[in-house]
Amino acid sequence: MSTLLTPAELEARLRDIGATRYHNLHPFHRRLHAGQCTKGEVQAWALNRYCYQAAIPIKDASLIARCEDADVRREWRRRLADHDGTQADGADAPGGIERWLRLTDGVGLDRAAVISQSYALPATRFAVQAYIQFVRERSLLEAIASSLTELFSPQIISERVSGMLAHYDYVTKDTLAYFDKRPPQAKQDSDYALAYCREHARTAEQQHAVLEALHFKCDVLWTMLDALDHAYGEAGHIPPRAFRPGSFPALNP
Amino acid sequence: MSTLLTPAELEARLRDIGATRYHNLHPFHRRLHAGQCTKGEVQAWALNRYCYQAAIPIKDASLIARCEDADVRREWRRRLADHDGTQADGADAPGGIERWLRLTDGVGLDRAAVISQSYALPATRFAVQAYIQFVRERSLLEAIASSLTELFSPQIISERVSGMLAHYDYVTKDTLAYFDKRPPQAKQDSDYALAYCREHARTAEQQHAVLEALHFKCDVLWTMLDALDHAYGEAGHIPPRAFRPGSFPALNP
Predict the structure, then answer these.
(1) Is the Cα dihedral A104, A50, A176, A82 positive or negative?
(2) Does ipTM exceed 0.90?
(3) What residues of chain A have any CB closer than 8 angstroms to a CB in chain B?
(4) What CATH architecture is B7-232?
(5) Ordered mean pLDDT values, 10 residues apiece, chain B (253 residues)
(6) What is the pLDDT of residue B193?
(7) With an 8 Å Cβ cutoff, are A125 and B130 in contact?
(8) How many H helices and E strands in chain A?
(9) Measuring CA to CA, which residue among A23, A59, A49, A29 is closest to residue A149?
(10) Nearest residue on chain B to A22, judged by CA atoms?
(11) Minimal C-alpha gap between B63 and chain A (Å)
């Protein structure tokens, strides 16, 4: 069914998935950066996205933990430091998770409640868990390929930051400091992952698996925004026990 | 925080979760049995729910696989036969999965496409996978407790069957034969699981874990209907590559 692609063709196919399936195309993202989200929606987005941020070092460590190649392990280790930082209070150089918590602080969410993840949508938790499982259980090549959404993140980040600063008066440059460091980190990370996939996807089957891994990851990100849209958008179908704007924290026992 | 409950109090708390959180309260279920779903929605429901059906023997075998108690293993083994039957073609006594496929046949879906699960919503797959993981990774007591939604299924099944027969002319008693056998099976299964939880949840912590396991399972079922509602209801946000009514099967490569 599949034919063997050249590395350049494989890269083009990967970039095409980004151009057609990445979550910058999702209605919720467009509303978020166009200033059309309520404050409750911005809070719900930050709160739910925290679950994803918190899972990143776990999935990266899972990748390192099943990798026999010390070169890959060394390279991948930098991601742990990027997200976890070097000190618990982030005094010197806060990692990505600490910087995300400054974002949730900035939009008025209780930090302990955010960290508990108890108020996140179940759909968020299931999607994030699926990502971790994918990295644990699939081939190393697929695990690496599933990180390739970072190829497209510099664009979404610039849309998000400029749009949110322009449209929401409670969002400041400090609140969004998370995003300052991400584009160069994402570029470095995705350059490596892309080169790895170009080099190691040597059969049509492996190339198909690489493409499917990126589709899968796009599904994870898309599903997270679908769930936010359904719960906090116009329809307003907030599931039991999830975050309710204006009454936070208010978890039932 | 928690105090120790009597077995009867624990059971009452479990039944209360069913009364307030079970997916018979979900708007999609209410539309489904009230005849307000389009044929595309009924098909999408049957197609997505297949993923759940197909996962049941996997989660049940996962439970048996991590259980040291032969009494529990023997009891739980019946569930495998209930779902997988005894012959591939289901000629003698079709199992639950084969009977579900007769339902998807009956609503006009291509069987191979259903079985591929490729057209299901990613949110469905993530929720189902979360259920399997839960049964694999949590304590045996929590794994058993997560099956307790069966306490409430006879009610939803009777609503579903009578409502669907009354309202959809393409749905026949044969199509819904899946549901004929489920109420007595579910009663037998849930009687056992409930007695197990009443007996083995001996500390406040264990009782809390049992209650949370049932909440988790309700979240799984609720999230599946949320995803259907968002994709196929009025808003119509079908994610990339998922089932599209009227153009099935039509998966992109």
Answers:
(1) positive
(2) no
(3) 20-21, 27, 121-123, 125-127, 129-130, 133, 215-216, 218-220, 222-223, 226-227, 229-231, 235, 237, 239-241, 253
(4) Up-down Bundle (1.20)
(5) 90 97 95 95 97 97 96 95 81 86 95 97 98 97 98 90 92 89 90 98 98 98 98 92 80 40
(6) 98
(7) yes
(8) 11, 0
(9) A23
(10) B240
(11) 18
